[in-house]
Specification:
Number of helices: 3
Low-confidence stretches: none
Distance between the termini: 46 Å
Length: 523
Amino acid sequence: QDTFDLVVDEHVHQFFPGVNTNTYGASAEYLGPTLILHRGDTANIRVHNQLAQITSMHWHGMHVPGEQDGGPQRIIDPGTVWHATYPVKNPAGTYWYHPHPHELTAEQANMGVAGFIIVRDEEEAQLALPRTYGVDDLPVVVQDRSFVANGNFFFGPYGNTVLVNGTPNPYVDCPAQVVRLRLLNGSNARVYALGFEDGRSFHVIAGDGGLLAAPATTDRLWLSNGERAEVLLDLTGLEGDSLLLMSFGSELPQTVPGANNMLWESSTLNGIDFPVLRIRVTAPTPEAITTIPATLVPQTPPDISEAVRTRTKLITGNGMVGMGMFMINGLMYDLGVINDTMQLGSVEIWDIVNNSNMAHPMHIHGVSFHILERNGQAPPAWEQGPKDVVLVDRFETVRVIMRFTEPSPPEWPFMYHCHNLMHEDNMMMLQYIVTDLSTGAPEGMGTAGSRVFPSPTTGQLTYESATPVQHARLIDALGREVWKAGLQGATTGTLDLGPVPAGTYVLLLHGAAGSTPVRVVKE
């Protein structure tokens, strides 16, 4: 088993000599340790909240049940401990953890609560890849931060100082061989256009959710908030040389946070090319990796023919990088409302359409998805693996496909939201549940004092609820809505399911307190 303790508490850290900065950390002064998990093992992680405010911890990109996901419902009160435990199902890849408390995510992440998760598995272990942690296999989290006169952080969408792994003006010594950089955009809002000062190419071998089918060679890689990418950099024969990883902000369109858009919040880094990380090349190590593999792991995304439905997720609104009213399908986040219901094991296609005034990095909890199209075209090679964040620019439509493999009861829904942390905290987020009709509550029994009878039924169904019910929806085994009725706030009444085909369903009773699911059999 993989067992860890993460103590989230307050610290004082010196980013610059003699300058004290108040920070938060996870078992560290700033940021937290890298958790190395192994596919097939069980993760046991105890999160200790020593802050004066609530927190939570989300295992970003990990395939875990809703109860273990660490979303805003999973409140860890000050002075308490949450013991998260889940089987490690993800393929080898780079994931991360960060807080997800309602309306406090950006603040706590800005203060430093975040860390890497590296998953290893047998398939990846068979490949000739660098994997000596800290030598030729390096985690690289890029953040921008600003400091006020007393040394503390300024809390806002942008920073004026680049930190890599919490270090300003960073450099790293890398051996003269193939090295692996695990890149993570841990910034609040800034998008990075990464590349090297001398224009050299590099090889992307993995995205958010694991390895690609083959390395994808490029000289530029955009990385939006929460996105990860693993790249191989061939430093063979370069001992004594020095390379500079840059972000080419001058190349970002005006619609992408980090561009020099004069109408948005300002930063000295906006719209310019700036250094991210200096790489100094040292002597190679024994048994160095010196070649780039031709192939990696086969990709097996769900087939389009398996999709039971296509949903459109329409982004609207106008605002700033750090504020504004942005909506998904005309809605903003309500902790008590379930926005979508899926059937466990089902496949869906989502069209994410951005009609707002700027780009948004869209993240879906509980799944990895594959990008089918960007504006009707195949995505670039480095986006053709499993992902959980996708940047959708203004007037873009991105089509993704995914299979819902993790259950989430109504009290522990999964989120989908903008991973610009400022937008997320300003309610640009909705939630969904994944139901399993083969198990669950007894027929006719729900939560919060609700029940329906008789079940099985041939048509007429009586419902009773402890709270007023505004409307009812019937969801079939494929997650499709097959029937609905308005109930005008009644706590009891009769439903006519006569036209509905025989089968097993989930009846959702929607009220002000949220959605109550009841398992129903129609004969």
